[in-house]
Amino acid sequence: MTIVRKAGSLAVIGSGISGLSFAYYLSYFRPDIKITIFEKSSRTGGYISSPLDNKSHKVILEKGPRTLRTASDGTLMIADLFQRCGRCDEVYGVAKTSLGNKKYILDWQNHLVEAPSSFYTAWNFLFGGNLLTKGLINDILKEPWRPGPIITQDESVEGFFSRRFGPRVTDNVVSAIYNGIYAGDVGDLSIRSVMPRLFDVKKSHRSVVLAHITSRLANGLFTGVKGLFRAGLTMLGLLKKKWGGGSDLLRHYQCEFSTGNVWFLKNILKKMPIISLKNGMESVTNLLRDQLQGISNVKYVYDCDISGIKNGEKGITISYTHNGTEHRDIFDHINCTVSPKGLSDMVEDPKLSNLLKAPTYSKVRLVNFYLRNKNYIQDSPGFGYLIPKAYYKHNPGLKHQAILGVIFDSDVEKHRSQIFNPATKRFSAKLGETVEEYKRNLINGEDWKNKGTDKEIAQYKGEFHEVSSTQEYTKLTLMMGGHYWKNEVIPNEATALLNAKDVLKKQLNIDLNEISEDDLIIETAMTDEGIPQYNVGFEDTKQEILDKVDVLYQGKLTVSGMSFNGGVGVPDCVSNGYKLAAHM
Ligand SMILES: C=Cc1c2[nH]c(c1C)Cc1[nH]c(c(CCC(=O)O)c1C)Cc1[nH]c(c(C)c1CCC(=O)O)Cc1[nH]c(c(C)c1C=C)C2
Q1: Which atom in ligand 1 lies closest to the alpha carbon of residue 571?
Q2: Which terminus has fewer CB within 10 Å in the chain: N or C?
Q3: CA proximity to 510, closest of 170, 82, 110
């Protein structure tokens, strides 16, 4: 990647979460660069979309991702962004111990089995006498004695788990998890891509169970010693916040960008594995869009159709049509954040174009339900449930319904609470303001960093109560399709709705025929290029693409976005955008 010259120009293709995050951070690190954001539609956000329902216009019905995992650095960056922009009151968390955090797996007789999230729930899961885990403990305990070579080659998730533990683990549990992340087939997904740590363990150990136990013990010992050491240093006043635990990226973010305190945030969020936003996930992309709109060096070109990207001596040219007119603009650099397939139509080289067509996506249909006045899922409150492969093995007649899982949106909403004390609005800062300027501009000139944050954390801890809405309602999202539609005719909207209604009746005992039209909202949305599939061979194709792009465009083109981030989540897009921008 080249470093863009002083006062140079850069184009971002795509205004989804990846494009906007990159542009936002770049405008901070390189305010001298002129940034043009190209978007083929007339809105920003890409697959993130949180419209109000089209019936009562009072309910947000998310058409894409809706929660963020706080274990990711990108989530801290998003929370920090809201804090920085004075909108802390919009960030909510779901506490670890809250009902809104319970996840289930559906067994083949339509019972919800709680997935493990603690020692207690893990014990119950394994020994609680349910259909899914009958005999599972045996499979796990036998693993160290299963013969098998150390393998250095990539293989499918299913291949790996079935070889080490037998088919039951994959069919009943692992397949459900991968339905809930990639909407993907465990028979295709690559262990190297989706579980890189396990893949590394497998390269050096015969038993993953023994390797896990040894590493847990060693880690425990290391953490214990490290903890004592840190406690000692803190007592001596030697440990500064900028050395706080966390990744190198977070440390960079804290020192070079944040006007808040990400370590403090990280501490708060340890108790809250899930974040959601008051006005839906689209408020993240809207916030980024609005912040960028206020910067004179940033320009948007909506409704444009890019036909070509060409490398030349003076720079890299984008040919596009906008408002019926053809344009050719030269830039010093392009960051392409759209899908590889989208890019394949823009590049000249046929070999690269073909390579870019190789990565596949899962198509997913969402069906949103909003049922007024009653909570229909009070028997099994939680985040939602996933459906394992075994469900369709035992119910082959239902496979055409292709349900991957159901999200209990209303439970997440009912069990969330604000993560920031509204008083912390003083963290607000403007984009482009330096840390020093920000500190100077603090209300009353107070440096909040020196104000007993430990006390504040304790105060926040006390706030992790569960809030329930006064008005009862049920909001659900059914997710269908994914790998089940790989080689099948995809059902049309009407069939999908019939299937969804049948699923509600069978799996949740909700009969929509008994609910009045006035109390019911149903919407559906289809995503064709939903989630990139990190299938076996994907890493090699990705590397081939990156190498070819490098040779052909000599560092003037970078490709990012979900296919190249190493993760398919919204936080991955944000942290990757930061990483790229910070090095320009
Ligand atoms: C039923 C289908 C889906 C549900 N969510 C997604 C699909 C396809 C999409 C999705 N879920 C996750 C990611 C990655 C995001 C990230 O931040 O890393 C994506 C793209 C996260 C996720 N969701 C579940 C798990 C186990 C994970 C990974 C790790 C974690 O957060 O703990 C579980 C889950 N997903 C869905 C449901 C109903 C569900 C559990 C009950 C919906």
Answers
A1: 17
A2: N
A3: 110
Nearest residue by C-alpha to atom 36 in ligand 1 = 180
The Cα–Cα gap between 338 and 318 comes to 14
**Contact 352 CB / ligand 1 (< 6 Å):** no
Nearest CA residue ID for atom 19, ligand 1: 181
φ, ψ for residue 128, nearest 5 deg: -80, 0
Q: Whose CA is nearest to atom 35 of ligand 1?
A: 180
Q: State the DSSP H helix or E strand holding residue 38, giving kind and residue range, or none if neither.
A: strand 34-38
Contact 21, 29 (CB under 8 A): no
Closest approach atom of ligand 1 to CA 72: 17
Separation CA 96–CA 274 (nearest Å):
8
DSSP letter, residue 439 = H
| Pairing status of strand 112-114 against strand 403-407 | unpaired
Beta bridge partners of 331: 316
CA dihedral 570, 576, 579, 581 (to 10 degrees): -90
Residue 559 to residue 62: CA distance in whole angstroms:
28
What is the pTM (predicted TM-score) of this model? 0.87
* Pairing relationship of beta strands 274-277 and 91-94 according to DSSP bridges: antiparallel
**Cα gap 308→146, rounded to integer Å:** 54
ipTM, 2 decimals? 0.95
Strand partners, 37: 12, 300
Spatial distance between the Cα atoms of 10 and 581, rounded to a whole number of angstroms: 11
Q: Provide the b/e sequence for 107-132 (b: ≥16 CB within 10 Å).
A: bbeeebbbbebeeeeeebbeeeebeb
Tell me the pLDDT tens digit for each residue of 248-297.
899 999 999 998 888 878 887 888 999 999 999 999 999 999 999 989 99
* DSSP β-bridge partners for residue 372: 473
**Nearest to residue 410, comparing CAs of 448, 372, 461, 364?**
372
Any ligand 1 atom below 6 A from CB of 479: yes
